Amino acid sequence: MWTDPYRIVVVLFVGLLAFASAALRVPAAHERPGGKQEASHAAPPDHQHHQQTPAPEQYTRVVASYDPPDVTLVDMTGAAVALRSVLNHAGPVLLQFIFTTCPTTCPVLSEVFAAAQDTLGPELHNVRMVSISIDPEHDTPARLQEYAQKFRAKQQWRFLTGKRQDIVAVQKAFEAYWTNKMRHAPRTYLRAAPDAPWVRLDGFVNATELVAEYYHLLGQ
Questions:
Q1: Which of 71, 133, 189, 210 would be 95's cystine partner, CB 3.0–4.6 Å?
Q2: Number of domains in the chain
Q3: Is the separation of the CB atoms in 128 and 86 below 8 Å?
Q4: What is the pLDDT of residues 101-133, one digit of tens each?
Q5: Which stretches of 46-188 are DSSP H helices?
Q6: How far out from the chain centre does Cα 65 lie?
Q7: pLDDT in tens, 3-36
Q8: d(Cα 2, Cα 8) in Å, to the nearest integer?
Q9: Mean pLDDT of 71-94
């Protein structure tokens, strides 16, 4: 039979062990105060890749008015075209600034246009899509043709290049000019009709979001 003092010592020792064990224990994310998981939780397996690339859903929507300069550019067939004529399409216009050797931003933007073509279906006949090169010295009509084929461009998708000073004037008119082409931001422009304001999407937008913005633009 233990004496009372001995029993007290044993109880205190066990209590200290239990306290030390609890202090060292790190709670799991779902057990932390509030019962909410922290933002660093792992994504589902099929979304792991997107953690290493720009998040396509992160963009802002800006409504603005732009006055394109009266310049003549060159399309991928080598034909001279007036920019205002191209943009004054009777139906909706979607516009991006790209260059064919861009390793990161431009392929993402162009692939979104490519995927949107399929998503729009019959509605595509009403749309004009325009990609303007910001590297005119390198992006000849022939290179634009190769680029268009790479992204499965259909007839409604126009690719334009031109003289450096004209391209810069267009970029500045759309608030899309950067002295270093490698640092240009991802932007997509939409307009419902020639007399309507432009909607600028700043950031990466995926094809589903772009089509949703398109129908929102048309009030559908």
A1: 189
A2: 1
A3: yes
A4: 999 999 999 999 999 999 999 999 999 999 999
A5: 83-87, 105-120, 141-150, 164-173
A6: 21
A7: 444 444 334 443 444 444 444 343 333 333 333 3
A8: 10
A9: 97
- The rounded distance, in Å, linking the Cα atoms of 162 and 141 is 9
Residue in the block written with tokens 């010295």? 137
Sheet (strand 93-98) strand order: 59-64, 198-203, 187-191, 93-98, 128-133, 157-161, 72-75, 80-82
pLDDT, residue 9, reads: 38
Six-digit token pair at 72? Answer: 């003549």
Task: Tell me whether residue 18 is in a domain.
Answer: no
27 occurs within a structural domain: no
Within-domain flag for 99: yes
- Which pair of tokens denotes residue 123? 């509605």
Q: Distance between alpha carbon 159 and the CA centroid of its chain, in Å? A: 19
- Of 104, 133, 129, 105, nearest to 118 (Cα)? 129
**Three-class SS of residue 12?**
helix
Could you tell me if residue 208 is inside a domain? Answer: yes
The residue range of the domain holding 144 is 58-217
| Selection from 208, 177, 175 nearest residue 56 by Cα | 208
The structure tokens listed for 44 are 């589902």
Q: Whole-structure pTM over 0.90, yes or no?
A: no
What's the distance, CA 81 to chain centroid?
A: 28
Tokens of 212: 């949703």
